[in-house]
UniProtKB/TrEMBL annotation:
This is Peptidase M14 domain-containing protein. The lineage of its organism: Bacteria, Bacillati, Actinomycetota, Actinomycetes, Kitasatosporales. Residues 1-264 form the Peptidase M14 domain. Its cofactor is Zn(2+). The active site is at 212 (proton donor/acceptor). The keyword Protease applies. Residues 522-591 are annotated as: Disordered. It comes from Streptomyces antimycoticus. The keyword Transmembrane does not apply. It comes from the Bacteria.
Length: 591
C-alpha cells in the first residue's frame, strides 16, 4: 500500500495528510485493533513529497507560493523563472503526450509534460519505486477540488473494468467514502495524460486513487466565526494554516485511507468504508438485438479470479446453452486496459431468430470453488430488413422521427438498403446489441445537439472498426456527455477541430485526404455555428501563454491525431474545469 502526496508543489494540505496518516498508524498501533491489524498484515509506504524541490521552492518566498511543477530549468539560464518546471503529473510514460489538452508541450504551461516520457528524476524514482515494491494499491493525494478520482484520465467518459472495484471503495455521489468529495471517473470534467494513476495501473499493475482535497474556500467557510474567510484565500491551494481545520480535513479522510489499506490484503475484495461490494459479474445489458438471425456478442465485466467463466442463454425458453467467455482485447483506441483485477469478457449467442426472446446470464466459480451466477437479462431479436447500413435518427424530443425516409431514400438511390433506429422512441442504441451488426451507421441529429448516450454508443462502434456518416446542424460540435460539455468526440473521432459560419454556401469541395469529393448544397441560409465556448469567454489572464510558436510547437510534437488549430486550445485553457482562482476566473488544474 502506497500513500503519496505533493506531486504539485503548492498543494500543501497533501503532505500534511500523509504525514498525519503515518502518525495515526504509529500512534494507534497496539491500541486500536483495526490499525494494529492493518500494520501487522500489510506493508505501508508513505511518500510525503513526490516533488521535494518544488515544495521547498514554495516555502522560499511568498511569490513562489503558487508554484505547481518541479524545478527543471527549461531554458537552462541557471534561474527558476515563470517558464520553467515540468508538471510531474503529466510526465509518466503511459499515454504521455496523448494530446495537447490533457497535457501541454508548451514549456511555460502549468501542465507542461516535459521533453520526453518519464524525463524527470521524480518520475523515474516513483516508477522504479512502484516496480521494486510491487504495490497493489495507492492513494495519490492532490488538492484542491473535493473530488475522489479513479480510472481513465486521457479520454472523457471512458469506463473500464477496474471501475467496479474503484467505485466500491470510492462510494457514490450520495454516499462518498470521503464526505464532501465527489467520486467520479478521472476524466469526467477534463482530461489528463501522462499522469501517475494511469501509469501505476497499466504499467505497474497497481490500483491508484486521486483524492482532490478541500479548497481554501471550502475550509475557510466551515466556521463563519473563525479567523478564516473564503474571500481571503489567495488561491484554492492555500488551505488555512489552522490546526482545527487541518485536523477536520485529515479526520474525514481516515476511513477511506484505511479501507484501501485493508483491501490491499485481498485486492479484488474491497473492504469498503461505505459498505459497497464489487459484484463478480456486471453484464452489459440491452433489450433489443438487431442481429437478425446472426450471432449476437454479449459482454460482461468479471472479477478475473472467477474461474470457468461462462455465458449461459436460452432462446424462447428452450434448453440452456453455454459458451466460454473470452477476455476482450480492446478496440482501435480504447479497451483492454485498466483491467488489473477485473476484465471485460465476451461470447456469442447463436441461432436466435427475429421475434425470439433470449435470456442471458453468466456463471463461474469463485477462488474458493463456490458457484457464482450473475443477474440475468433478456433481449428480443428485432424484425428488421436485411441491410448493412443503419440510419440512426436522433431528431431530439420524444416524438417519432419524421425525416428518416429522406435518408433511407438517399441510401436506396445509391444501392444501399438501410435499417432504422429511432432514438426518440427506442432510446440510445446499444453498441453491441444494435450498432455492431452494421458496417456503416448514418447518424443524423437534425437541428439538435448530438446526445451524450448515443454519442458514446457510436464511439464504441467506431472503436471496433465501424464506419460513420454523421450529419446535422450541430454535428461536429460539442455535446453533453455525462456532466461534461465536450467536443472531444468531434475532434478525435470526426477530425472536426473547429467550426465556422458561411453565409449561403452553395457547394463544397474536399482537399487533402478528401480530395476529389464534393457536392452542391441545398438552400441552407447559412451554416450554423456553435461557439467553442458557449457561455463564457476566457478572461485575459488566461491568454498570457498564447503564442503562435508555442501553438505550432505543441501541434508538431503531438502524435498523429486531429490537428489543434484553435488558439484557445493552445493556451491550455479549458471551459469545462470548475475550479477558479478568485480575482482571475481562470480554471485551475488541480490533478
Ligand atoms: Zn495536484
Amino acid at each position: 500500500m502506497l500513500y503519496m502526496s505533493n506531486q504539485h508543489a503548492r498543494e500543501w494540505i497533501t503532505p500534511e495528510m500523509t504525514r498525519r496518516l503515518m502518525h495515526y498508524y504509529l500512534d494507534n498501533y497496539g491500541k486500536d485493533d483495526r490499525v494494529t491489524r492493518i500494520v501487522d498484515r500489510t506493508e505501508l509506504w508513505f511518500v510525503l513529497s513526490a516533488n521535494p524541490d518544488g515544495y521547498d521552492y514554495t516555502h522560499q518566498s511568498p511569490d513562489n507560493r503558487q508554484w505547481r511543477k518541479n524545478l527543471r530549468d527549461n531554458n537552462g539560464d541557471g534561474k527558476i523563472t515563470a517558464g520553467d518546471g515540468v508538471d510531474l503529473n503529466r510526465n509518466f510514460a503511459y499515454k504521455w503526450g496523448y494530446d495537447n489538452e490533457g497535457s501541454s508541450a508548451d514549456l511555460a504551461d502549468e501542465t507542461y509534460r516535459g521533453p520526453a516520457p518519464g524525463s524527470e528524476p521524480e518520475t523515474k524514482a516513483l516508477d522504479a519505486f512502484e516496480k521494486r515494491v510491487g504495490f497493489t494499491y495507492g492513494i495519490n493525494y492532490h488538492s484542491a477540488a473535493e473530488l475522489l478520482l479513479y480510472g481513465v484520465g486521457w479520454q472523457v467518459a471512458t469506463p473500464t473494468p477496474d471501475d467496479v472495484l474503484y467505485k466500491s471503495l470510492a462510494g457514490t455521489p450520495e454516499h462518498s467514502a470521503i464526505p464532501g468529495y465527489h467520486p467520479q471517473v478521472s476524466s469526467e470534467l477534463y482530461t489528463t495524460n501522462g499522469e501517475a494513476d494511469g501509469h501505476a495501473a497499466n504499467v505497474n499493475g497497481m490500483m491508484m486513487f486521486t483524492p482532490e482535497m478541500s479548497t481554501c474556500q471550502t475550509a475557510s467557510g466551515v466556521d463563519p466565526n473563525d479567523a478564516w474567510q473564503p474571500r481571503d484565500c489567495a488561491s484554492v491551494f492555500t488551505f488555512p494554516d489552522d490546526e482545527k481545520l487541518i485536523a477536520q480535513e485529515f479526520t474525514k479522510n481516515i476511513p477511506f485511507a484505511l479501507s484501501v489499506a485493508e483491501t490491499a490484503e485481498h485486492p479484488d475484495r474491497p473492504a469498503s468504508s461505505v459498505g459497497l461490494t464489487a459484484p463478480d459479474f456486471t453484464p452489459d445489458t440491452f433489450t433489443t438485438s438487431y442481429a437478425r438471425g446472426g450471432d449476437q456478442d454479449v459482454a460482461v465485466t468479471v472479477r478475473k479470479s472467477v474461474r470457468d467463466k461462462k455465458l449461459n442463454y436460452r432462446v424462447d425458453g428452450g434448453r440452456t446453452r453455454t459458451a466460454s467467455l473470452k477476455a476482450w482485447k480492446g478496440g482501435e483506441t480504447y479497451g483492454g486496459e485498466d483491467n488489473v483485477l477485473f476484465d471485460q469478457y465476451r461470447a456469442a449467442v447463436k441461432d436466435a431468430d427475429p421475434g425470439q426472446q433470449v435470456k442471458v446470464w453468466f456463471t463461474g466459480r469463485t477462488k474458493s470453488g463456490k458457484r457464482t451466477v450473475s443477474e440475468p437479462f433478456t433481449y428480443t431479436v428485432a424484425k428488421r430488413p436485411r441491410a448493412d447500413t443503419l440510419v440512426l435518427a436522433e431528431e431530439g424530443g420524444s416524438s417519432p422521427a419524421r425525416h428518416t425516409a429522406a435518408y433511407t431514400r438517399a441510401l436506396a438511390d445509391n444501392g444501399r438498403k438501410a435499417a432504422v433506429w429511432d432514438v426518440a422512441t427506442q432510446g440510445a442504441p446499444s453498441a453491441l446489441g444494435v450498432l455492431s451488426h452494421f458496417k456503416t451507421v448514418l447518424w443524423y441529429t437534425g437541428a439538435e445537439r448530438p446526445g451524450g448516450p448515443t454519442l458514446l454508443a457510436v464511439r464504441d462502434f467506431l472503436n471496433e472498426g465501424g464506419k460513420l456518416i454523421t450529419t446535422g446542424e450541430r454535428a461536429g460540435g460539442s455535446s453533453e456527455v455525462g456532466p461534461a460539455d465536450t467536443d472531444d468526440f468531434s475532434q478525435y473521432y470526426l477530425g472536426a477541430d473547429s467550426r465556422l459560419t458561411l453565409k449561403s454556401p452553395t457547394a463544397f469541395q474536399g482537399t487533402g485526404a478528401l480530395a476529389g469529393t464534393g457536392a452542391n448544397l441545398g438552400d441552407a441560409p447559412a451554416t450554423p455555428w456553435t461557439p467553442r465556448v458557449p457561455t463564457r469567454s476566457p478572461p485575459m489572464c488566461c491568454r498570457r501563454r498564447t503564442s503562435p510558436s508555442s501553438a505550432a510547437r505543441a501541434r508538431g510534437s503531438t502524435r498523429a491525431r486531429a490537428p489543434r488549430t484553435s488558439p484557445m486550445r493552445a493556451t491550455g485553457w479549458r471551459p469545462r474545469a470548475t475550479v477558479t482562482t478568485p480575482g482571475c476566473g481562470c480554471p485551475v488544474r488541480s490533478t
